[in-house]
Amino acid sequence: MFFRKKTPSVTPYDPKKEAPELHSNTCNRDKVVGFRSLEDGHFTEMMTIKSESDLKEFCRQYAVDEGKIRKVW
User: Fold this and answer.
1) CA distance readout (Å), 68 to 6, 11, 41
2) Is 29 left (phi over 0), alpha (psi -120 to 50) or beta?
3) Angle 35-37-42 (CA atoms, 0-180°, nearest 5)?
4) Is the overall model pTM greater than 0.85, yes or no?
5) What's the Cα-to-Cα distance from 62 to each of 11, 23, 25, 29, 56, rounded to whole Å?
6) For burial by CB atoms within 10 Å, which of 2, 5, 28, 62 has the most?
7) How many other C-beta atoms are found inside a 10 Å radius of the C-beta of residue 32?
């Protein structure tokens, strides 16, 4: 039996209702990326960013352009 690594499918987000954001903590350098609701401002964490490849994986998985991610300090 051979097993293949499943490739996660693209999970689109609704740009009319959500905006991608990268939250960065200056004290301990933690970075979390997710989506902020444009209706009520609630932030939903989707992934912890440990390296540049994690950010690229987030962009690929959620079909987000890296230039459109707002950085919040």
Assistant:
1) 27, 17, 17
2) left
3) 90
4) no
5) 5, 17, 23, 24, 10
6) 62
7) 16
Residue 15 CA to residue 10 CA, distance in Å, equals 15
Closest listed residue to residue 11, CA positions, set 59, 65, 56, 71: 59
- The residue among 1, 34, 3 whose CA lies nearest residue 19 is 34
Q: How do residues 12-62 score in pLDDT, each as one tens digit?
A: 789 999 999 999 988 888 999 999 999 999 999 999 999 999 999 999 999
> pLDDT (tens digit, 9 = 90+) per residue, 2-24?
666 566 677 778 999 999 999 99
Q: Which residue has the tokens 């209702």?
A: 17
Query: How long, in residues, is the chain?
Result: 73
